[in-house]
Amino acid sequence: MQTPAGKECRFYYEDYHRGNSEQYCRLVRNNPRSLDWKEKDCFHCPVPDILRANSNPDLVLEGTIKKGLLGINRHVAVEAFCSRHLVEVERPEVGCHQCAEERPGLQELFGDNT
């Protein structure tokens, strides 16, 4: 679904059909450590770009809306995990290093850091 920022995101949900007025982000909705979602959070959220760059079904994202310094500049902090190898993914837009090793041609994404 298209977010208020105009990007496609599978975690964003809205329903205005037949008098409903509902908008929320499923990624942060049930996260007790997150601040409540606001529409403006979509404008600086990295999740749509991550999803566009990496479509690996084993990539699990966890989003948390946090306050910035001095209580201003809210941002979405994203942690990524590989459910296949049970490891934390440092660069979610690239994906899991172990998944890349299993697929020929993907290792060059990680450069010489491997």
Overview of this structure, please?
This protein has one domain. The termini are far apart. The longest helix has 7 residues, at about 45-55. The chain has a 3-stranded antiparallel β-sheet with strand order 3-4-5, with no helix packed on it. Strands 1-2 form a two-stranded antiparallel sheet. The protein is α+β, with helices and mostly antiparallel strands and about 110 residues long. It has helices spanning about 25-30, 45-55, 95-100, and strands at about 10-15, 20-25, 60-65, 75-80, 85-90. A hairpin with a 4-residue loop joins β4 and β5 (about 85-90). It contains 3 helices and 5 strands; from the N terminus they run ββααβββα. The mean pLDDT is about 90.
Name its key features:
114 residues, 3-stranded antiparallel β-sheet, single chain, alpha+beta, two-stranded antiparallel ribbon, 5 strands
* Secondary structure tally, helices: 3
Measured by DSSP, the beta-strand proportion falls in 15-25%
The end-to-end distance, rounded to whole angstroms, is 36 Å
Biggest β-sheet: strands ordered side by side in the sheet: 3-4-5
Low-confidence runs (pLDDT<50, min 5 residues)? none
- Helical content band: 10-25%
